[in-house]
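Hello,

Our lab assistant flagged a job as stuck in the queue for most of the afternoon. It eventually completed. Since we weren't sure the result was trustworthy after the delay, we are filing this so someone can double-check. Below is the sequence as submitted and the structure that was eventually returned. Let us know if re-running is recommended.
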Amino acid sequence: METKAGVPIGAFAWSRTARSPGAPAAFFANPDQVALGQALALRVSATTRLTAEAVAAAGLLELASHRFARLIHDVHMLTTRAIARFLVTGQGTTETERSFLGRLGVLAAAHGLSSAALNRSYFLWRDTNLRVLNEEAARLGTAAPVAEEARMIIRSSADSGILRIARAYDDQMHVVLAKGAIPIALHNGYAHLNGHAPAPAEVVRARRSLA
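-- returned structure --
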């Protein structure tokens, strides 16, 4: 898989240059890569569950609503599925899928979740997917260069996804500040309302004010 120097590769980076969300006409995957992608596809649900357990163990979503926690779960499942699909077909993400990623950043800002916590959850997704990929590569006897390229795709896709979510998060914070809906102070990487951590009721009122 050829890439330009300095340009991330992977399911989310590919979508920047693809003319359509379908598989590129000139995509020729190594059979080992296809088999690895198919194996990862079979473990999407398990990988998402492992990621959710890691996020919970890190205490990243203790104050998040069930709706927001579900959204993070769905984003993690979507991105793992996109990686598997990319390995098999070369198909990048659709505009709908990319917009779904951005929605996570918007709601995180509205909920008062820190960008640091959001990024950490995505790093946990990356590390969990790498662990599962390594297990499947060992089980299948995947050639080392193919396995390493798949790891690079996961890392690059994680970086691209984080950037997309971060942009949406920052844009939403600017909207909030512009509307004057919530006086927000940024302290030690956490979003606070009026200088203190938001209580659930405050978050609800804040979200309603944005409607």
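-- support follow-up --
The delay was a queue issue, not a problem with the job. The result is valid. The longest strand covers residues 184-187. DSSP finds eight helices and two strands in the chain.
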